[in-house]
Amino acid sequence: MGSQYPSCRLEMEVGWGDCDAAGIAYYARYFDWFTNGRIHFLKKYGLPYMAVFHRQNINMVALEAECRYKKALRPEETVVLETTLESLSRTRIRFEYKIFKNDGSLAAEGFTSHAYVDEEGKPFDFKKRYPLLWEKTLRILGGQESKTAF
Questions:
Q1: pLDDT the model gives residue 1
Q2: Using alpha carbons only, how large is the chain's radius of gyration in Å?
Q3: 3 in Cβ contact with 84 (< 8 Å)
Q4: Where are the domains of the chain?
Q5: Is the pLDDT of residue 32 over 90?
Q6: In what order do the strands lie in the sheet with 59-69?
Q7: Does the reported pTM lie above 0.85?
Q8: What is the distance of C-alpha 92 from the center of its chain?
Q9: Under CATH, domain 7-141 is a member of which superfamily?
Q10: What pLDDT is recorded for position 144?
Q11: Which CDD domains would you find in this protein's record (predicted)?
Q12: Closest of 118, 137, 140, 136 to residue 60, by C-alpha
């Protein structure tokens, strides 16, 4: 599924602490990598999470997360994590991720979807509560709101 939104790549090395006793990347670690990719993506596009969102009490809580594992990853292996903004709405945001091995083959792919919530954990309409930041976010990340629910 092609996205109208930008993407970015982050090179990383699989650490020994990322792996299980069999020497294979532990399945849950991929979600940590997805978080790193998401934070890197926002920073790259001028929206660093802590400075722009967190300090204004805008939290992106996970609603859904999925990962499909294609090939094993091992310690000291260099991989590339590609993060793409898949959809953006006034109440939610969704990212897709692909992890590629050095040879370019796909090792894993997945997504996370998030709701915007305040410091009390209550969801809100981003555009209504932070109209200037919403417009800046749209301008930076692709120019239009997703029309489909996700």
A1: 43
A2: 16
A3: yes
A4: 7-141
A5: yes
A6: 7-13, 78-88, 92-100, 106-117, 59-69
A7: yes
A8: 12
A9: Hotdog Thioesterase (3.10.129.10)
A10: 64
A11: 4HBT
A12: 118
Paired tokens of 119: 């410091």
pLDDT tens digits along 34-70: 999 999 999 999 999 999 999 999 999 999 999 999 9
Mapping DSSP onto H, E and C, the string for 110-149 reads EEEEEEEECCCCCECCHHHHCHHHHHHHHHHHCCCCCCCC
Positive/negative CA dihedral, 86, 63, 35, 130 = positive
In percent, the amount of the chain with pLDDT more than 70 equals: 93
pLDDT at 149 over 70: no
Task: Please identify which residue in the block is written with the tokens 């650490």.
Answer: 15
Handedness of CA 16, 19, 20, 23 (dihedral sign): negative
